[in-house]
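Support reply, case 0932

Customer input (verbatim):
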Amino acid sequence: MRKIPFEQIVNEVVAICLKAAYDLPEDVLNRIKECLEQENSERGKEFLRQYLANADIASKERVPICQDTGFAVYFVEMGEDVSIEGGSIYDAIEAGTAKGYKEGYLRKSIVLDPIFGRKNTGDNTPPIIHLLLVKGTNLKVIIAPKGGGSENMSQIKMLKPSDGRHGVIETVVDAVVNAGGNPCPPTIVGVGVGGNFEKAAFLAKKALLREVGSVNKDENYAIMEKEILEKINASNIGPQGLGGKTTALAVHIEHFPCHIASLPLAVNLNCHAARHAEFEI
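Our regenerated output:
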């Protein structure tokens, strides 16, 4: 059994909270640069240039890429032969989140109760933690902070099996087009298909972790991703919803087996600031 000190995890979480807030990942930057070369709208090009300039300033000056530093969402892979010395993995991640958001002067956006009072917790906790037990002695933690603007445009639909491929494509495209400029496009579109109600939503969120523009390993889904992206970008919504061919940077689909009577579908939108950072011990 490998023992990892509680405080080591806390400190690592602090570091990735700050990195995610300040540094736009290289894959996202590269995709924005590609889209800048292809964009046919002068206004759209100017927005894309501003995104790149903003990311450069944020990284150099160690300030947030966006004022909405998001709900702290974690994806954790913890080896079955790992033991946290001095506390639980949940407590360590929560403590690291509170410390990171305070030390980095990152905006605290979480209210304790969703309906009654809506009092801010003051330290951006509690985080959302998706924990997966895996074989081995390693611990991998990914943070994917999620802002409210793009999250509010996400959808989940329980389609009929007969809706099939066409129904999935139509629903995803409609979700993005109807969102317009609200999620600060160009977006990254995470799609979850299958499982059940909550699994589809999880898959859509997890899909946003893929390298931007990477191709699905399943050829059928890779073709769907390309078709959906082309339809979205033909909508002329463009950067910030003000016109252009760059409405989405990528469409990523994750799928899972489902019930014979169901076809669950979730769409989780992320603005161009697809922030994520990770550590592995």
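We compared this against your earlier run and they match. Two observations from our side: The first strand starts at residue 2 and ends at 5. Residues 148-273 form one domain. Please reopen the case if you see a mismatch on your end.
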